[in-house]
Amino acid sequence: MKYFFICVLLFPFTTYGQFNQIHQRLSFADYLFCSRDYLRAAEEFDKILPEIHNDTIFIKIGLSYYNIKDYPNSIKYFSMVKDEPDLSSYANEKIMVSYFLNKEYKLIKFYNPTSRGIMKLFNYSLLIRNYPPDKSIFLRPFDEEEKIEAQRFYNLKINPPTKSSTLAAIMSAIIPGAGKIYTNRISDGITSLIATSLLGYLTYTNYKADHKARTYIFAGLTGFFYAGNIYGSFLSAKVYNQKISEDFNLNLNIYLEGKNYFVTEPKFCK
Amino acid sequence: MRISFLIIFLFSGINLFAQTDYQRWEKKPYNLTKENLSVQREYKFTGDNAIDFVVTSGISLYWFFISDLDGANCPYEPSCSSFLVQSIKKTNPLTGTILFFDRFTRDMNLFDRDVNYTITKRGQLYDPPEHYIFN
Amino acid sequence: MKKIIIILFGVISILNAQENKQQYEYAVSLFNNEKYFDAITEFKRLLFFDSSGTYNFQAYIYMGNSYKEGGHYQDAINYFVEAEKSATNQKELFNAKVNVIRSNLLRGSYLNAKRLILKLDNDPRYDSLKDEINYWYGWNYMMEDKWDSAAFYFNKMKNKTELEDLARKTQDEKYNKYIPKIMSIFIPGSGQIYTGNYLSGLMSLGWNALFGYLTVNSIIENRVFDGVMIANFLWLRFYTGNIENSNDFVEEKNREITNHTYLYLQDTYNGIKP
After folding, report:
1. Yes or no, beta carbons of A15 and C16 under 8 Å apart
2. Subunit partners of chain C (3 or more CB pairs within 8 A)
3. What is the pLDDT of residues B78-117, one digit of tens each?
4. Model confidence, pTM
5. Contacts of C10 in chain A (CB under 8 A)
6. ipTM of predicted assembly, 2 dp
7. What is the SS3 assignment for B119?
């Protein structure tokens, strides 16, 4: 009888039935999560959910989807976190970051005024959406150290170093290629100047020499190259401006990624 | 002794790799053949309207009789003639032609090529008309 | 008391072994049904729970093969290397190393594959397996498009395969890449005609003849500037284009020929492939 009891007591500590035991499955899912096999981890956790569910598991599923950039799913699981106040504020922050990364900037809201991280993210999302607030309002949530960078990004947004496409077109109309040089395409501008003036010169000499057919051909070519140079300069400024705004978003995203979007991560893995 | 056993037990069979399985994948067909990177021309003598017909068949004739025979002179992808066809299709004949002349000017420029363009798989400069069409 | 505990643990370990075996078979069945992603999950589960390490080697090989089937060659190589580490005997070790080489061949990293084969070749432990080593040398050269060397290594094998003849045949079928080029340098268009592109060759010849004639004509008529212009912008252009074309056609034809062989190896050949 005594031995029977020992057996019964020992049984739970054995690993028999390990592939089905709920805690073993949980530890396997944790292992997958910590070895960064996130899709498998999320699926494993998801299978366990009917039997065990707590905030940590929801967070881990959310993080798994977050790490594989599946933001709709990560938002879904992060919003299931309800009970523990610490975890739910963390989950809320992560939801907002997911919205940010999923480019759903309008959905970023801060319910809790103590969460400065979300306020910072919200302010940056206003910059990306081209609705910059007043400078003092924009800078309010930032620490002294972060203020320098924030100010830089804010100034870049308010006064971007763009080039005027109309000015480029007018410059090119006066001197072929000048507009391209103005938009930093220096070699293109010089080529344009040489091509247009050479063709113009050829038109002139042929006209002088009374070669009618050649005059028409060269005049047509000169006209098209001249028009192409004006319109090309106009577009070149647009391309330049587009690159400026793309670079702004890229640099901002790199900066925010470095800051981990102002979220402090709890440690789930050793 | 016991601790070392514990450590061996804990770490046996556990390996950390950077994972690439962030999406479910299926079997990929087994392939030993090598990809053909040379340009495949699509000679066409049809069109949706009169202008389209004239442009496409004119370019096809140009490709067949001249462009295919005079060597690789265009460093771009799409080539200058394809650029003309595409830009006319995407805008209108006049804007398309003006865009083409702008492209031709850039083609004559031998400098800063690696700075201004990304390089494609065939080692050419990627410069489609979409880069120059703004709404 | 002690006895009972020992018996208990014995029973448990037997039960565990049985369970691990079931899991292993389940994972293998997934692999056989081409559900490679899930197979990898199940093998990972097996490795996580199987503390005895009985299935380590097999599981790693299966995982590597799963990744290989999915075209994820870097992951496949990682797992085959892992299999190398957990190999229990020389045969398994060799098997794992060959698998690394095969994944490298599929990935297109021939230099790496060659380095690994060379390592096997220089290892005295595998002296009895020279046939297999030469076989992979041959495959490496075939994939690298060097059919002569491939045939040489297939010839070194004691048990001959059809691959030697195949490699020789492909090498014979391939065009020499210099002949059409040299032909085109002397007579424009002749290289293209040699490779079977008659229309292109004749048109090349026509353009070159026309612009050559125009150049010579303008120089004879004392219009030197026109002559230089025509020669530079038209004749030279079509002349270099002609040489480029003959080169391109040879490459194209040779690619067709080699792809035909690769297709045969891929679909019809019954031996071991990368």
Report:
1. yes
2. A, B
3. 999 999 999 999 999 999 999 999 999 999 998 888 888 9
4. 0.84
5. none
6. 0.83
7. strand
